[in-house]
Amino acid sequence: MTILILLLLLVIILPTIYFAIKSVDFRKFLAGAFFVSGGVQVYLAFANVSVPIIGTDFVQSAELGYARGAAHLVLCAVCLYFGFIRKSK
After folding, report:
1. Residues 6+ positions from 73 with CB-CB distance below 8 Å
2. What distance in Å separates the CA atoms of residue 66 and residue 44, rounded to the nearest whole number?
3. How many Cα atoms are found within 13 Å in the side-chain-facing hemisphere of 25?
4. Which whole-number Å values give the CA distances from 87 to 13, 16, 47, 66, in the listed order?
5. What is the pLDDT of residue 6?
6. Is the pLDDT of residue 13 over 80?
């Protein structure tokens, strides 16, 4: 089962990285998606809401929500810079 999950993640992650490198519009989309995701993660952590992970018995704690929110906001800043601010050559 673990190998299947890793294989599916690779099938999703590799094309995403390819399109993020090649397409400015995709980076703009990712900037918005990371902004919303990071904001929701920080908001739920601030409200001290534990979030269950779908399909498992695991629960994401508020502390992990802060970490994920911060990581998503950093990724938002990176995609924002490469999608909107820096001009491609």
Report:
1. 34, 35, 38, 39, 42
2. 9
3. 0
4. 25, 21, 39, 32
5. 87
6. yes
pLDDT at 14: 86
**C-alpha neighbours within 13 Å on the C-beta side of residue 29:** 8
Length of the chain, in residues:
89
d(CA 51, CA 58): 9
- Give Dmax (Cα) for the chain: 48
- SS3 annotation, 1-63: CHHHHHHHHHHHHHHHHHHHHHCHHHHHHHHHHHHHHHHHHHHHHHCCCCEECCCCCCEECHH
- Full-model pTM: 0.80
User: Could you read off the pLDDT of 31-85 as tens digits, one per residue?
Assistant: 999 999 999 999 999 999 999 988 889 999 999 999 999 999 999 999 999 999 9
